[in-house]
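User: Is it possible to get a 3D structure for a protein together with its bound compound? The compound here is nicotinamide-adenine-dinucleotide. I've pasted both below.
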Amino acid sequence: MTHRQPWATAPLLNTLFLSPKDVAAIVAHQGVAATLMGLVTAIREDFLRWTEFDKSARLANHSQDGVIELMPISDASSYSFKYVNGHPKNTALGLSTVMAFGVLADVATGRPKLMSELTLCTAMRTAATSVMAAMALARPNSRTMALIGNGAQSEFQALAFHHLMGIEEIRLFDVDPRATAKLINNLQNNPDAAKLRLMVCKSTREAVAGADIVTTLTADKTNATIVSADMIEPGMHINGVGGDCPGKTEIHPDVLRTAKVFVEYEPQTRIEGDLQHLPADFVVTELWQVLNGQKSGRDDQGQVTVFDSVGFALEDFSALRYVYDQALRIGLGVDLDLIPALDDPKDLYQLIRPKTTGRATPTSPRGHTLANRAMPMKEVQIMPELV
Ligand SMILES: NC(=O)c1ccc[n+]([C@@H]2O[C@H](COP(=O)([O-])OP(=O)(O)OC[C@H]3O[C@@H](n4cnc5c(N)ncnc54)[C@H](O)[C@@H]3O)[C@@H](O)[C@H]2O)c1
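Assistant: Yes, that's possible. Here is the predicted structure of the complex:
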């Protein structure tokens, strides 16, 4: 953890950098439940301002084993983007399936004011978004959840549904028993989950049977059928998180056909969600319209609802502004020397200007010796006409 002074008096150019340790320190400082609730609040506030945002489906570069995506969004005052990948085979190499970082910038000047890790933040904002959707769509008396896929995202979903949605029992299944053992170990050693009952199941079917909510969190770059129509019971809410890329789905189209389907940003989900298997005229509802009361959510206790989650840029915008505010409040992070500090903003060349006798070494408003950050003197050819 790096302690720092609040930024009120900091120079205009500073970019705050938050590492995974800093974000973890925010969670440690205020507790996991309060952090997840803070994220739900931030995301809900921004979903209620939906029409104020300049939105687009994310830009995806696909390769054989994965995808790398850029997720930009802005309102009148702030702009953000996230860089994120999805490589299901990464864990075999010792790397995470999902890795991310992002930037929050001032629209008025373009100044990047925050650069933050977003791997941990993505897991938390995804869990917060899942709970926000379930609060609006699942039966309010839901107490049991099936959690299919027990990898990196799973603890966050379990804790969010336990603390914020009142889930008391989670039924676990993963094709990799070590992933389930890891999840159980993490939750059993967490006082925040002391009252949560965990049941290991032998199959998805066994885990789903009798559950009020079904969360699918698997990673496999294929059109998988994790949940099929014959597993679904009246009144269930499906929180489909792992199907988030063309050719990477989890929920059989027949489940969607018999359910009421909700999405984040329809143009993106049509390409990336489980919805990709259905025709363009299949009716879905954007979540923000349920949150602001424009459209209905669940219509009756027996209806099956599906949140076809893919992850939308607005959730990362909310997460970035949330961790930024918390970091300033607590005093976390370091100043990142990302943008050149210039005595004269039209004189960018000062950064590489050769040091000559009789001329003072230029210093930045932050007191750095600019020459120290330029090319080493011995490598610079001083042209007579420039001296
Ligand atoms: N919608 C969103 O906003 C969002 C955000 C983050 C991650 N995701 C997606 O969520 C998924 C999980 O991410 P992660 O970081 O936990 O990945 P991970 O690789 O850490 O874990 C995925 C788990 O799924 C298990 N799995 C694979 N196939 C399975 C099957 N058929 N049945 C049961 N389990 C199976 C794997 O064994 C693994 O333990 C990924 O597909 C990721 O792209 C979506």
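Residues 86, 88, 91, 97-98, 122, 126, 148-154, 173-176, 179, 217-220, 224, 226, 241-242, 244, 309-311 surround nicotinamide-adenine-dinucleotide (CB under 6 Å). Residues 1-10, 362-387 have pLDDT under 50 and may be disordered.
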